[in-house]
Amino acid sequence: MWMIILMTFVLLFNLVNRPQGASSAISYSDFVSRVESKEINRVIIDGDIITGEFNGGRKFHTVYPLNDGKVMEILRDSGVSIEVKPLERENWLKTIFISWFPMLLLIGVWIFFMRQMQGGGKGGALSFGKNRARLTEQAENKKTFADVAGIDEAKEELEEVVDFLKDPGKFTELGGRIPTGVLLAGAPGTGKTLLAKAIAGEADVPFFSISGSDFVEMFVGVGASRVRDMFAQGKKNAPCIIFIDEIDAVGRHRGAGLGGGHDEREQTLNQLLVEMDGFETNDGVIIVAATNRPDVLDPALLRPGRFDRQVIVPVPDVGGRKKILQIYAKKTRMDDEINLDLVARGTPGFSGADLENLINEAALMAARTGAKTITQELLEQAKDKIMMGAERRSMIIKDKEKKNTAYHEAGHALVAWMLPEADPVHKVTIIPRGRALGLTMQLPEDDKYTVSRTYLEQELSILYGGRIAEQLVFGELTTGAGNDIERASSLARKMVCEWGMSEELGALTYGQKEEQIFLGREINRHRDFSEDTARRIDAAVRTIIDEAFVRAEAILKENRDILDRMAEELLEKETIMLEDMEDIIEELRPGRFSGQIAERRRKEKELREKPVDADESEEETLFTAADEKTAEPEKTPDAEEETDNNRPGE
Fold first, then answer.
1. Does residue 650 carry a pLDDT above 80?
2. Phi and psi of 498, rounded to 5°?
3. For a designed S-S bond to 287, which of 181, 382, 522, 531 qualifies (C-beta 3.0 to 4.6 A apart)?
């Protein structure tokens, strides 16, 4: 657009300002005298302009009066070569263009910016308040419920909605009615949008999809207009499904933050509430919405009659992870010896998107190395890259820092192995990954939905194992344990203030969270207790930390030779596995831990040989809203890390 405007200006300038050539201007009387003295040999007459050449070749031009009839006679008498050009007729198109061009240019620029504000101007200037929902054709969408795995309960809820659309009589004959809306809520990457695509692929009805941000514009009232137009189109195509992705962009709690009650977002939400359940009915129009922040949505939006169903889309369990891996494995070339059961058990806390990324990373690694198929080793490398970050082998580390890192990670790993309730150690490495100089990775044996106080206390000991090992061996503290101390302090304070795990303070919650829903995150914590209670809280936190510190210190002092041997192995191999640790322990403590090691290896062998049951999740502890007071969110695999960000005070 700007190039066209620039080129037009250049063209107009050239039309108006034609170059006259390198000629000198002379007066008419001078011209006549020079003609009479025969200094001019050639002239060109163009209207009232005379151009010509002197005998020496120098050019000139002058203006003469048209009523002077003697000029031609003088030229002929002096033997001057005369050329006469016809008079140019005035081009009326050129005149109109020059006079109207500035106005046309302003109108064009205004139209251009208006179309930009409307997102391309689809439908012309009158489409500013029109609905932007996209109609998905059946031929375009290849997703079905067969492509969705690991979230069986959510699938059942939505399959029922599709069945209702296909055969409403089956449900209405008993007095049932079609749900007005279904809200899909879950963590990012769990498959909410994939479920919506599966609905579009399964339902034989029109499917409209739109994002919550498409309703919000800089002009007040545009979002409400688009909501009205969206439901008007839905009624014309009823029965139909309208999918609103990221509905929290428009459905946040009203009256929160700095905005008043008349801003664009709240007006849009008000219109959405009216259209979903107001005086007019929208029979046959089902709203399916997705969000990962259901806590910030307005209560009026969540009530029955608007969103009749709230479907939780959870992170898949071990059985669900295997199903998801099988779906994505079909799209790649896997080795015949691949054991997806091991991958499923080794990826607790992974969402569907994480598992897809895992398979894709393994495929990319195979292509990069020239492998013909994806092997188990490539899957393990891809898992390590996702969980711990890419290796930074080019990073130059001094021998002293490398030795310090080896003892730090060996301290984490040894304490974790010696504590019975801790998650098993999977791998220890001093190869820098991401922001960490070294990592100790623990993998839970199964998915955890609640954890005990003993588990948390031992987790604190593991976090301090690295710092204690540094102090024990080198007699000096470094900033490498900064992240460990930060995590340990936060965990101990939660044990006291949120989970009631202090015997002195009892089962009470201390401190109320003040959240700004408009911003979507916790801003401050309100202190609802006295100074004396605050001191008691600090003392209780310190007691828990000190007990964990003493526990880890006792383990490392008692097993100093094992610590030294593990650090030597790390310096030599850079990465050691759980089996390597157990071989060192068995060699230095023969017979003492043989039964424990043999039992663990027997269980691991059984797990390798036993396939993951599709219904295995039924045997696991279920997490309900009633258990929320003692449950933590599902944990991702632990990785104790030594950060290379040596900030002051860490």
1. no
2. -115, -35
3. 181
HSE of 356, CA atoms in CB hemisphere, 13 A: 13
Contact 444, 498 (CB under 8 A): no
pLDDT tens for 36-69 read 888 888 888 887 788 888 887 788 888 877 677 7
Q: What percent of the chain has pLDDT over 70?
A: 79
Per residue in 199-209, pLDDT tens? 878 877 788 88
- Find the helix packing angle between 560-573 and 453-474, rounded to 10°: 80
Give the pair of three-digit tokens for residue 141: 């969408």
Q: Is residue 590 reached through a cis peptide bond, with omega within 30 degrees of 0 on the bond before it? A: no
Which amino acid would we find at residue 232? A
- Cβ within 8 Å of residue 510, ≥6 positions away: 496, 497, 528, 529, 533, 537
| C-alpha to C-alpha distance for 208 and 131, rounded to whole angstroms | 10
Q: How far apart are CA 278 and CA 142, in angstroms?
A: 35
Q: Which two tokens stand for residue 464?
A: 């301090």
Instruction: Determine whether 217 is an active site residue.
Output: no
Separation between Cα atoms, residue 470 and residue 450, nearest integer Å: 32
For the entire predicted model, the pTM comes to 0.68
Structure letter (DSSP) for residue 297: B
**Cis peptide leading into 294, omega within 30 of 0?**
no
